[in-house]
Amino acid sequence: MKSTEQKNDMRTKHHSSQRGQVLILVALLLVVLIGFVGLAIDSGRTYGVKAKLNSAVDAAAIAGARALAQGASDPLREAAAIQAAKDYYVANFPTNFQGATLVALTNADVSATHDLASGYWTINVKGSAVMPVTLMGLLGFSDVAVSAEGGAIRRDLDIILVLDSSGSIGTALPGLKAAAINFVNKFNAGSNGDRVGLVTFASGGVLDVPINKTGARGFNKATVTNAINALTSTGSTAAAEGMRKALNDINGVPVAARSSLRMIVFFSDGAPNDVPAKFCNGAVTGGVCTASAANQPTGDLYSETAGPGTSRATSLYDYQRRDSSLGTYANIATLPIRGLPLTDAMGVAIPGSEVPLASFNNIRALTPVSPANGVLFPYTNTRCNVNKAARNMVENVADTTRSQKIKLYSIALGAAVTTAEITFCSYGASESGANILKRLANTSDSDTHSTTQPTGLYVWAANASELDAAFSTIASEILRLSK
Q1: Cα(228)–Cα(400) distance, rounded to whole angstroms?
Q2: CA distances (Å), origin 380, targets 198, 338, 356
């Protein structure tokens, strides 16, 4: 038999062995527990780095898309896009964020591809960062690689800029020119870029710079800039003729060659007051003008802005020039039912497309004449009728424009657009220039807003100093849609 001392010694050795085993198990469990804690901590850090890297990559892709406006050829635009992507990538990832090191982009990490058939540019960016771990080092890890990818699509644009250069622009003209030129500079010029054309109007309308009608894209910025700088402020407001010329020009691009986004940007400081049409300065018999050819002039009939609304409008201007008088025509007793036509992609007048003088939305009814005058000349020539027709016609062309999925934007200047401007037609509050410009753009707050047509944007500048911001707002909206 073992002595009591021997038994106690055995118990002591057994307990020591158990304590050693427990310590080993505790140590192992602590390592695992620390590893799980480290995993939780470092996973949270990794998630934060991943989110920040995603933001940097997205910013890089968007910046690359915007930079496509630089360069006269696709290789130059591609180089500009890649450099902009690299710059914005670094700028949008804070130095040493969560201890991570951003891996610099190489040319292989950024791609800018142009599909000429569809007019789409695709920008892709791949980025990565290396983040050192904390407690996960106990499990044998030293760092974690984080990656992200982002992309942006930019669509080529067909844009017609329509500028009011009437006499009321006055001292605001330098500000208008500067704002319009800054607007133009935001778009891709050169081969395979955006297409930009220019129409200006006063007492008549002028296609100053036609949009590129060839299969190639692009435009000459110097030509557009020079045309804008050459503008003078004079004449009345033949808005309908400006809009008609813009629609005809943008539709002059062959259907197969048109860009995927087509837009008209329309600027004015007031309401329309000229009607473009062919008039009869003489007798109408059986609905037919019997005056000589010389007395059947085509031009812009000016309603004037003051005086009795029931008196005749007599001043006629050249509809193809901004401010060239054709003279006074005292014998225009009636107005035609329609004005000048729209044209097809070949520049040929479309039968039946002549712009109606009547309102398509029945907002402004014109006073008819006796039925004895026939259906071709159903309206009395009064200043009020001419003024109503001038407003109706620009909205009619705009409605046709939007029905073809061409997006319209409008920019207004000054206090005059917030009033009806004339008193001889008893216009209400809804007849301000601002309301008309909102209708042109089909804004969501317009009283004639159509959900079946593109919704545009209206921006008002109180004075010339605000014009650049107004044009920039429209440009930003257009570029946003192009991505």
Answers
A1: 27
A2: 34, 13, 15
d(CA 168, CA 183): 22
For residues 471 and 190, give the distance between their C-alpha atoms in angstroms, rounded to a whole number. Answer: 22
Q: Could you report the per-residue pLDDT of 316-365, keeping only the tens digit for each?
A: 999 999 999 999 999 999 999 999 999 999 999 999 999 999 999 889 99
Distances (CA, A) of 197 to 90, 174, 220: 37, 20, 9
Domain architecture of the chain: domains with CATH: 22-155 (no CATH), 157-481 (3.40.50.410)
- The C-alpha atoms of residue 105 and residue 264 are separated, in whole angstroms, by 38
Sign of the Cα pseudo-torsion (241, 247, 253, 259, in order): positive
What's CA 399's distance to the chain center, in Å?
A: 18
**The tokens 């085509």 sit on which residue?**
298
Q: And the tokens for 439?
A: 């209708």
Confidence class of residue 136 from pLDDT cuts 50, 70 and 90? low
Provide the CA 257 distance to its chain's centre, in angstroms.
20
pLDDT band at 481 (very low <50, low <70, confident <90, very high): confident
Count of other CB atoms within 10 angstroms of residue 314: 17
